[in-house]
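Continuing the batch. This is chain 6 of the set; chains 1 through 5 are on the previous pages. Same settings as before, nothing changed between runs. Recording input and output for traceability.
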Amino acid sequence: MNIVVLDAYTANPGDLSWNALKSLGNVILYDRTPPSETASRARDAEIVLTNKVILDAPTLDNLPKLKYVGVLATGTNVVDCAHARERGVVVTNIPQYSTESVVQATMAHLFNIASSYVANVNSTRNGEWCSCADFSYTTGPLVELSGKRLGIVGYGTIGKRVAQVAIALGMNVVAYGPRLALGKRSDGVEAVALEQLFQTCDVVSLHCPLTEATRFLVNAERISSMKKGSWLINTGRGPLLDEQAVANALRSGQLGAVGLDVLSTEPPAPTNPLLSAPNCYITPHNAWASFEARQRLITIAVDNIKAFLENHPQNVVN
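Output for chain 6:
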């Protein structure tokens, strides 16, 4: 089998091994692939692996030997899965490989906002503690999370783990999911309607997939219904937010702070309004990318291909 990895660098910038993959066929690794070169690089491949390189219908039609697409992520919106199915091409993903890492990143954003960590560390580095008249000071509010109300939108594997950690911190947790029955659950979380979640929570954390129903889930109207000064965290997908509306809300004080690991366009344009918005803390879409998570990613990707070659494919999404 000819196996082509179109964007290998983010999964493995050099600290992991591709040997297990290379044992399955003739492997060609590209760190990155521009759209203009996708078809030419993958034309002779039976198996293509991609993370963010788009395989739309026209591109798939230019890959005559293609039998299998492995998405090196959980989300599969980079592939036209329906068209791949029509072509007889199996598409797989890698679920749950980064759960603990994304939960950790979510809580890191929450802790930073609650305790002004970034501001305090930068203040100390800039010498402000050295010149302070007192032994202790803070550059921003210090907020105790215990007793605060956290709303989780999207109650899948990651959302449930975030809830467990938040409950351990003493937070009151509510959640929304389209298939959740309303009311108290045995795990200590209360399932509520989406509007109630936004209206009543001190913090809202997004863990839902990007679909046409969830695009711009957080918009100006919904933000206006939130408690003034509440916080928003998004480690899901960038287009869940109307970014201009979020930036406006940060400037007006309707939102007190925002922690983001994703944006609508990545990398972002310098003109993205969130880059200059006050109290907006952005990490470069690396919540998923711990060493351990990337190791699991490659292991599962290889296992997916092995299962496909043995005629019992797993983690099939189309």
